[in-house]
Design brief:
Number of strands: 9
Radius of gyration: 19 Å
Structural class: alpha/beta
Distance between the termini: 38 Å
Number of helices: 14
Helix content: 40-55%
Strand order of the largest sheet: 2-3-4-5-6-7
Bound molecules: 5'-deoxyadenosine, FE2/S2 (inorganic) cluster
């Protein structure tokens, strides 16, 4: 019986932390409800073994939407002349941190496009100011590809973690998503450099990006097994109207949930967010992401007046809400499904 076989696969993946391409194909395609439930239940158990019912929250500060890159999927790509560009000053960033701290955030994620205005020196100044004021908080950077030396300086200034989604581990697929100025090789180099320096590192990808197949997803999972990142960020691809991918299909809730569960089983200790993109394609997307094995949520801390401008994809949620609203909305959402949002740096266990 095929269902029995798939359940056995799930148990084996959980035990051995490895997956065959054929298993991945079957687990992504199956329509059997029992198999899907078993996959989620297994991932939920594994997460509970490591992290209990605690959910970590990160305050996301989107501090610039200028970007020198031109990734075909992204709403803030440099060719999108309709994007209304902004930068936050150091003062504004610190004020986000202050309200965030009062709301119980103990991790600040500084995310932005690859904006040359923020030189290493400016980033290091911002990081050391935050480090000095909030010695008990984790500082996460998500500002793209840099040299090993730059990463080192920012680490020495006090950054602890770095998010850089690899986007796809397949060379040909990478070429389909990015212009020639970018390379998969450099992106992977960045991730290994960050890890070697001592950052807690996050890679990740969009689910359902144009050209993604079972084969490319298989390579994504192998990269995760190889790199052993502390964090993995995945969310559905959502087309943005002013990009070359405006007419492409978006990723689905169902496939994103299955991949979240598989990543939890393959890499049990991973910090795995239920992303805003997941919440954007379904009203209960983030709750479902947690139930599928996630253990992190990242409410927005950016000032309300810039939120609508950090539009990576269409219809992004939470763009009209104050930081405090998102914070407590998220807590309510997590409690509604039996989880507890904790005031904690939420380090990798
Ligand atoms: N849909 C979903 N996610 C996107 N990202 C960029 N553009 C989109 C989109 N159209 C993701 C990328 C990037 C992260 C910050 O946001 O994976 O790494
Ligand atoms: Fe932002 Fe619910 S999390 S409004």
């Amino acid at each position: 019986m095929k269902e029995r076989m798939l359940m056995d696969s799930i148990s084996r993946i959980r035990k051995e932390h490895s997956i065959e391409k054929e298993e991945l194909a079957l687990l992504l395609e199956t329509k059997d409800q029992e198999v899907c439930t078993y996959l989620q239940k297994s991932a939920d158990e594994v997460r509970k073994q490591v992290y209990g019912n605690q959910i970590y929250m990160r305050g996301l500060i989107e501090f610039t939407n200028y970007c020198k890159n031109d990734c075909y999927y992204c709403g803030i790509r440099c060719s999108n002349k309709k994007a209304d560009r902004y930068r936050l000053s150091e003062e504004q960033i610190l004020s986000c941190c202050q309200s965030g701290y009062e709301l119980g955030f103990r991790t600040f994620v500084l995310q932005g496009g690859e904006d040359p205005y923020y030189t290493d020196e400016r980033i290091c100044d911002i990081v050391s100011s935050i480090r000095q004021r909030y010695p008990d908080c984790a500082i996460t950077l998500s500002i793209g590809e840099k040299s090993r030396e730059s990463y080192r300086k920012m680490f020495d200034a006090g950054a602890d973690r770095y998010l850089l989604r690899h986007e796809t581990a397949d060379e040909a697929h990478y070429r389909l998503l990015h212009p020639e100025t970018m390379s998969l090789e450099n992106r992977i180099r960045c991730l290994y450099d960050l890890k070697a320096i001592g950052y807690q590192v996050g890679c990740g990808f969009m689910v359902g990006s144009p050209g993604q197949t079972v084969d490319t997803l298989y390579e994504d999972l192998q990269l995760i097994l190889d790199l052993q990142p502390q964090m993995v960020g995945i969310g559905p691809f959502i087309p943005h109207q002013d990009t070359p991918f405006s007419d492409k299909e978006g990723g689905t809730l169902e496939r994103t949930l299955r991949l979240l569960s598989l990543i939890r089983l393959l890499h049990p200790h991973v910090l795995l967010p239920a992303t805003t993109a997941l919440g954007t394609i379904h009203p209960k997307g983030r709750e479902r992401g947690i139930q599928a094995g996630g253990n992190v949520v990242m409410p927005n801390l950016s000032p309300t007046d810039v939120r609508k401008k950090y539009m990576l994809y269409d219809n992004k949620i939470c763009t009209g809400d104050e930081a405090a609203e998102c914070r407590f909305c998220m807590q309510k959402r997590m409690e509604s499904i039996g989880y507890e949002v904790v005031v904690d740096r939420g380090d990798f266990k």
